[in-house]
Amino acid sequence: MSTDSPPSRRQGEQGYDEARRGLNRAAESRPAYVVVARDEQDVVAAVRLAAKRKRPVGVMATGHGPSLPADDAVLVNTGRMDGVAVDVPGATAWIEAGARWRHVLERTAPHGLAPLSGSSPAVGAVGYLVGGGVGLLGRRFGFAADHVRRLRLVTADGRLRDVTAEEEPDLFWAVRGGKDNFGLVVGMEVDLFPVSRLYGGGLYFEGAATADVLHAYAEWTRHLPEEMASSVLLTHNPDPSGVPDAPRGRFIVHLRIAYSGPAADGERLVRPLRELGGVVLDTVRDMPYAEVGRIYHERTSEPYREYDRNLLLSELTGDTVDALVALAGPDAGAPFVTELTHLGGAYARPPKAGNCVGGRDAAFSLFTVTVPDPGNLRRRDELLAHLRPWGTGGINLNFAGVEDAGLARVRAAYAPADFDRLRAVKARHDPGNMFRVNFNIPPGDATGRAG
After folding, report:
1. Among 177, 255, 446, 447, who pairs with 203 as Cys (CB 3.0-4.6 Å)?
2. pLDDT above 60 (res 451)
3. Is residue 74 within 8 Å of residue 49, measured between CB atoms?
4. Can you list the domains of the chain with their CATH numbers?
């Protein structure tokens, strides 16, 4: 494609609204231009257009949408760039900017290989990877960003760069965890792993069992092998089309299991949870890794308007559980959904090729989702305030929402020294902060401090 005339759309033109909107409409955008990129040269042209017009740049791959409005910006929609190429002998995959995890799974599963994908096959792979990537194999292998081998990046000067630990090492360190602050990724090479199946699914408990389940879960997670990944969702399920038959219309504790060891060992590990009582549906079974989307059973296709918030926890104590039950349990009438994800294991270990992903000291991630009504947000913030004594002080940007785009919240996603280094890298590669329609890391001076 020509780098002089990207396929852009402006307000009022056909296709503009479709191209600018993600699934989450919490941050509605009115960009000056929307570029629907068909290949990496279109991305180059979009960045050069932004430089020429002195516009900021935002990116949207597969639908969650920008973290803040991309008003008057050049918004690059990479959804058509969904190619995936698998190197079976090398156990790697090349993933284009707009590919979803389902595109990757379709090509890796026939070879008995698995990416470090997330819980939903509909999520964009590259956005997940540059944010760190907490998935179903992470306790065993680490953050997904830890296993990015190389990437291609369009930087603020309009250059297309090949980025590895040897070539452009500062960008290689910063992009893996720093999201789209340093340029637009057009593709990544990632490691694949010899995982063809999981013992996984969901245990759905009735609301009355919430306290017993959470206390048992807190104890159960203390002694698990790294092959066991799990999370718990506390929610009221009114939607008859979005959940299995048994939990319809009830408050449900949905305990999600993903064990990548032998199925017999998985069954043994899960047995104490099955024996708790109050199970209204049990979908845990041996399954192909290609079916991992069935474990979380997440809504993925209909537009919505929701605010996300995240808190990393250093531990899950009895008092932590009591606070969760009181403020997010079946009798709380909580106007939000609460998810608790078990971390630890390989997440805590530094990768062979260093990156800026933070939160390695966290034992759990707490994630809340609510409709942006003032009363709902007040109730959610009350929960987060009560849980803060067990917090690490950090957040994970892949679980952050539109309220987290301020500097203090972004800073909380990184170790202090890493954040200073990120600002220094930003100053070298994007001193004008062109890439700021995001969880922004502003440029600093040579040391990373504000200049």
Report:
1. 255
2. no
3. yes
4. 8-77 (3.30.43.10), 85-191 (3.30.465.10), 197-402 (3.40.462.20)
